[in-house]
Backbone:
């Protein structure tokens, strides 16, 4: 077969592979992925999958990145806890972390001999950007003897100031294990309210000392969205991330991490789910449960969406300086203790 025809055949085969995963997935609120969209993605996914083997790289992708990354090129997909664990175990030379900066920074801290590259460059996060290490130090000085937890959505400097970090999949259990009646929890004030309520519900109440950050995606949901979902879709199950306001969470059927919501949906016999979370998780559920219906009012993380097939390829072949993750050694050593403490406490 002439080389050009073989290439055309390979492209078509790759487009069909992608379309097999993405045919039931929303591309926007009103459109689905088409075979033509997949044909446009195919040259990139083919090249990335070839070069990642040549370069001995693995690609980790958070569920909030786009589905062409999640299903086209990622070796592992998951929430921030799953990806942190995976990053610790990687033996390849290069980790391409399709996510936001604090996630890639965490991967570098726990597996420092690897080259960690982030396609999106310095992609922030409204939570991680809301507080500095010295502000946490000041809170600790104001509350001597009070243990401090930080959400993983924080900088290495913040992690370095805390006793342990947590993710949304283990925050309630780890907080319950901390000594004393008071607990510092930064930087998510809405998760702090949910945490205080959950600890009270479990019969192990604590006063939570919080800072003022919030997720600019999840803090937008209101009780009216839950009420409208229930009115429009009788029998709907509504799931939410604990970064949402407490008045919203208290109306939902399930509140938990990205992985927790996915597991709840996978094990449920119900058909229709209201998704008070980022579009990427909606896309994953559409791909993995084409027989179920997902209703999503809104919610896109512009930081996560800075990752694209084009900059994954760039990070793999010829990374820009801002795509290469490095962390100050002293800060990394202290932050590593807080991340490793999470791994111990989460067992
Ligand atoms: P998960 O830990 O559930 O992946 O959440 C991370 C995040 O950034 C949610 O907005
Ligand atoms: Fe940060 Fe919110 Fe984006 Fe998650 S969804 S990365 S918490 S801004």
Residues:
């Amino acid at each position: 077969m002439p080389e050009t025809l073989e290439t055309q055949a390979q492209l078509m085969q790759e487009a069909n592979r992608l379309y097999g995963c993405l045919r039931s997935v929303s591309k926007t609120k009103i459109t689905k992925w088409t075979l033509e969209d997949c044909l446009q993605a195919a040259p990139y996914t083919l090249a990335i999958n070839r070069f990642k083997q040549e370069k001995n790289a693995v690609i980790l992708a958070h569920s909030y990145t786009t589905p062409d990354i999640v299903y086209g090129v990622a070796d592992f997909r998951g929430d921030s806890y799953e990806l942190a664990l995976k990053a610790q175990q990687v033996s390849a030379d290069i980790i391409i972390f399709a996510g936001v900066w604090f996630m890639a920074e965490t991967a570098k801290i726990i597996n420092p001999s690897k080259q960690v590259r982030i396609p999106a460059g310095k992609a922030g996060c409204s939570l991680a950007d809301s507080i500095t290490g010295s502000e946490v130090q000041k809170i600790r000085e104001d509350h001597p003897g009070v243990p401090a937890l930080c959400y993983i959505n924080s900088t290495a400097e913040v992690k370095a100031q805390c006793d342990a970090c947590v993710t949304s999949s283990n925050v309630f259990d780890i907080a319950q294990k901390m000594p004393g009646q008071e607990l510092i929890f930064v930087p998510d004030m809405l998760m702090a309210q949910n945490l205080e309520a959950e600890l009270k519900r479990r019969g192990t109440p604590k006063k939570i000392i919080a800072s003022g950050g919030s997720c600019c995606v999840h803090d937008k949901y209101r009780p009216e969205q839950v009420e409208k979902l229930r009115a429009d879709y009788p029998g709907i199950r509504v799931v939410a991330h604990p970064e949402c306001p407490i008045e919203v969470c208290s109306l939902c059927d399930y509140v938990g991490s990205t992985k927790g919501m996915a597991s709840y949906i996978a094990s449920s016999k119900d058909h229709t789910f209201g998704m008070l979370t980022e579009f990427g998780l909606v896309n994953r559920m559409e791909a993995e449960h084409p027989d179920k219906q997902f209703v999503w009012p809104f919610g896109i993380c512009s930081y996560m969406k800075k990752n694209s097939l084009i900059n994954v390829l760039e990070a793999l072949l010829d990374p820009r300086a801002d795509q290469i993750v490095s962390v100050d050694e002293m800060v990394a050593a202290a932050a590593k203790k807080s991340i490793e403490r999470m791994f111990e406490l989460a067992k």
The first strand starts at residue 57 and ends at 62. The chain has three domains: 8-123+304-323, 128-215, 218-295. The pocket of iron/sulfur cluster (ligand 2) is lined by residues 100, 125-127, 153, 215-217, 243, 278, 301, 303-304 (CB under 6 Å). The mean pLDDT is 97.
